[in-house]
């Protein structure tokens, strides 16, 4: 092999690795504090908050991070940050040996919940037909997902636990699947300052970045109003260091619970349908 060819090959491989980052390489190592917290998590608390990724549970590509918080360099309307799945079809593969039969059924039930309320279709991954798919694994602490269709294999992790607990709360699984559909968190929406106040002094050390606001024109709400009752909203005490609120609603909650994980709200359903159906 000539030296020129070798150099060209090295350059090609390094450039490729920048653009084709393996999904696993994007996962940040969770902190020991989070891992400890997850072991005895309270039933009103959500495991996805303590999962060590962006805003707790979003695994973002470097480009997504840049766009989400800094905005597009050239403002040409909405950036295609949260890519739609082709033909509303989301192939998924539950990793063998990662979950019990019951846990596997519970994950499938969560995909069915989203299919029931929209036109999207979760289908078992078939390597002969599908290029892009979600690999559902239970290999890491916490629960997290990549956001939107990334291309190729992408990760959604649910740490195995008892049904109804931690990452196996039914609507925490639905929450992660909604990230995979291309939706981010409600409490970071660009219009959030009209609806919530972020109380900095109650936030855990080094966790303020989880309350950054998304820049305009990057995330669309599809014309649907901010919703305290969204399954994508974080609870009042998310990332709290003193059990005091980090998020205070500025308007009436009208009977809904901020940060609930008991149902899909009407606006959650409306957003999914606006994006896909
Ligand atoms: Zn989330």
TrEMBL record:
Coiled coil: none
Keywords assigned by UniProt, alphabetized: Hydrolase, Metal-binding, Metalloprotease, Protease, Signal, Zinc
Chain ranges of the Peptidase M12A domain: 76-277
EC nos: 3.4.24.-
Cofactor binding note: Binds 1 zinc ion per subunit.
Any Gene Ontology biological process: proteolysis
Gene3D superfamilies the record matches: Collagenase (Catalytic Domain)
Residues annotated for Zn(2+) binding in this entry: 175, 179, 185
Broadest EC class assigned to this enzyme: hydrolase
PROSITE patterns to which the protein is assigned, alphabetical: ASTACIN
Highest taxon listed in the record's lineage: Eukaryota
Extent of the signal sequence: 1-23
Annotated GO MF terms: metalloendopeptidase activity; zinc ion binding
Cofactor: Zn(2+)
Record carries keyword Iron-sulfur: no
Name used for this protein in its record: Metalloendopeptidase
Organism, scientific name: Chironomus riparius
Lineage: Eukaryota, Metazoa, Ecdysozoa, Arthropoda, Hexapoda
């Amino acid at each position: 092999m000539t030296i020129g060819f070798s150099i060209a090959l090295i350059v090609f491989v390094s450039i490729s690795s920048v653009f084709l980052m393996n999904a696993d390489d994007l996962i940040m190592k969770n902190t020991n504090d989070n891992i400890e917290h997850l072991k005895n998590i309270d039933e009103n608390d959500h495991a996805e908050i303590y999962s060590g990724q962006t805003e707790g549970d979003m695994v973002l590509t470097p480009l997504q991070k840049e766009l989400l918080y800094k905005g597009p360099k050239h403002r040409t309307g909405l950036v295609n940050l949260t890519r739609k799945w082709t033909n509303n079809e989301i192939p998924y593969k539950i990793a063998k040996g990662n979950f019990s039969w019951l846990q596997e059924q519970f994950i499938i039930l969560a995909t069915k919940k989203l299919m029931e309320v929209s036109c999207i279709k979760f289908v078992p991954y078939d390597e002969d037909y599908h290029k892009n798919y979600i690999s559902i694994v239970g290999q890491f602490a916490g629960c997290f997902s990549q956001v939107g269709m990334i291309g190729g294999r992408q990760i959604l992790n649910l740490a195995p636990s008892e049904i109804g607990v931690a990452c196996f709360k039914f609507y925490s699984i639905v929450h992660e699947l909604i990230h995979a559909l291309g939706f981010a968190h409600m409490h970071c929406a660009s219009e959030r300052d009209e609806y919530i106040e972020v109380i900095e002094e109650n936030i855990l050390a080094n966790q303020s970045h989880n309350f950054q606001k998304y820049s305009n024109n990057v995330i669309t709400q599809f014309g649907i109003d901010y919703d305290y009752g969204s399954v994508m909203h974080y609870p009042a005490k998310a990332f709290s260091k003193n059990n005091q609120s980090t998020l205070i609603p500025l308007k009436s909650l009208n009977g809904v619970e901020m940060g609930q994980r008991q149902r899909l709200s009407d606006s959650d359903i409306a957003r999914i349908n606006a994006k896909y159906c």
